[in-house]
Amino acid sequence: MNYKDAVIYQIYPRSFADSNGDGIGDLPGIASKLDYLAELGVDILWLSPIFDSPNADNGYDVSDYEAIMPEFGTMADFDNLLAGVHQRGMRLILDLVVNHSSDEHRWFQESRKSKDNPYRDYYIWRTPKLTADGPAEPNNWQSIFSGPAWAFDETTGEYYLHLFATKQPDLNWEHPPLREAIYKMMRFWLDKGVDGFRMDVIPFLSKDQTFPDYPAGRYGDSSVHANGPRIHEFLQEMNHEVLSRYGRAGEGCVSIGEGIGVTAELANLYVGKDRHELNMIYHFDHAVPREEYRFVDPAPEFTVLELKAIFAKWNLALDSIDPATQATGGWQNIYFGNHDNPRCISRFGDPERYPYESATMLATVLLTQRGTPNIYQGDEIGMTNCAFDTIDEYNDIQVKNAWQALITQGEHSPEVFLATANQIARDHARTPMQWSDAPNAGFTTGQPWLKINHNYQTINVSQQEATPRSVLHYYQKLLRWRKQTLAIHEGTYSDLLPDHPSLWVFERTLNNVTFYTVANFSGDFVVIPVIQGVSLSDNQLVLANLPNQTDTLQPFEARIYERKKTGISDE
Ligand code: GLC
Ligand code: CA
What we know:
Blueprint: E1 8-11, H1 27-31, H2 34-40, E2 44-47, E3 51-52, E4 64-68, H3 75-87, E5 91-96, H4 106-111, E6 125-126, E7 129-131, E8 134-136, E9 150-153, E10 158-161, H5 176-192, E11 196-199, H6 231-241, E12 254-258, H7 264-271, E13 280-282, H8 304-319, E14 331-334, H9 344-348, H10 355-366, E15 372-376, H11 397-408, H12 414-424, H13 461-465, H14 471-483, H15 486-490, E16 492-495, E17 503-510, E18 513-520, E19 526-527, E20 530-531, E21 534-535, E22 540-544, E23 552-553, E24 558-562
Parallel strand pairs: 1-2, 1-15, 2-5, 5-11, 11-12, 12-13, 13-14, 14-15
Antiparallel strand pairs: 3-4, 6-10, 7-8, 9-10, 16-17, 17-18, 18-24, 19-23, 20-21, 22-24
The protein binds alpha-D-glucopyranose and calcium ion.
């Protein structure tokens, strides 16, 4: 199967399934759920980081890229998991976190010892800037997790760069031995049979070596760090040295870039057919904005009008030719939820009044879009945001650091902060998977590392397995249908009603076969539209989340039609 035809399922290992009662999800836990995942009908499993780590950022701070985090198990557990995935005809991809490592990585331990240590240039060190007020940070860059992006290190009297936490020093991709060490590590996993990588903040790898201050008007804007001058050279080298040598001829192993700071206009430079860089990229245009100040001044949620505009723009951009490079025909990876965003049903649906309807409506839209979709763990049962009552109930370093800056050291209202965090924090996606109504949602027999959502007795896998009309059964059905429907994999995309304030109606066409997705993104009743003089409902209904056959869509109703030869836009 081509990566364009696949469906990806993202696992956050810490929160998926705990096999030994220590309250932390682990690899044997994942292995015990492989039948569940195969039955769901997904093709590729993406594991968030499983490598040894002090967990400053839950594994996105790697201290040994070739060792398994002891809390998650052993290398034998990993080999067993990989074999189990392959036996079931699925593929496994790992999270490649190589913009930065942990400060506890051996390379950094060496690097900070002296200026002439062989590992010094594995990281980005700069002398203090001399100002009227004394020595200061080399420039004004800010960490995405609050405060300056430079940390002073006493031993050698220099600053190192960390675009994330101080415990996540940025690796220096300008230094060839570092790049070779990373490629070697990638080969280690691919030689084991791993099928590819999701690549963390990949556009950050190359930095402007003059380290200029933020441009005027963009202070603290993290996209400034993206798309540096040598990024495409580095990715082409990585592709040549590693990616192209594995997987399928012509497409290499699976490679997905986390496209932070990548605009639609730049996308084909990363994924265009003749670029020899990555298979796919996913963008941040509909991610929840979460700069530090957002915790007291949240952005309004995206409306369906905005979502449609974003998806249309990306589809158009990927299908176009880049005028400068002629790069063409790139592919994207699409998502509504992941471990860095609140739950999609809480953002775009109505989990209180329409839990089944809104979860299945979102599934219908995501899984019939053009692009390789990611299902985030728990979305297939409609898991929701969690009510966190105090700052201590959170785990995420981003929320903790923002609290420290805005509340402990700042003068903002703790009530406002807590109310906002209950909308935007990343921990909403990280509460343990809800397997059953047993204590701790069947996730662990011990004390879970993060709060379990209070609603686990009504929203859980076993309950939905036993209920014919459930979000889970709808996902299974939709995925089975999708698998054999080529037009949904690679057909063209066109938004039929970009200006409709509550419906998302789009067409997918391949070789004269056309499907229409009609989705009601609102809690209102909406009359099914007539397009070019023909009612959509005159086409052949293939799938729907509600039994309703009338011409009025119910709240969050979604339907998929196949065009009848006598239907609309028939030539
Ligand atoms: C990516 C990850 C996020 C992590 C950050 C730093 O955005 O998805 O979870 O905190 O990179 O590694
Ligand atoms: Ca465990």
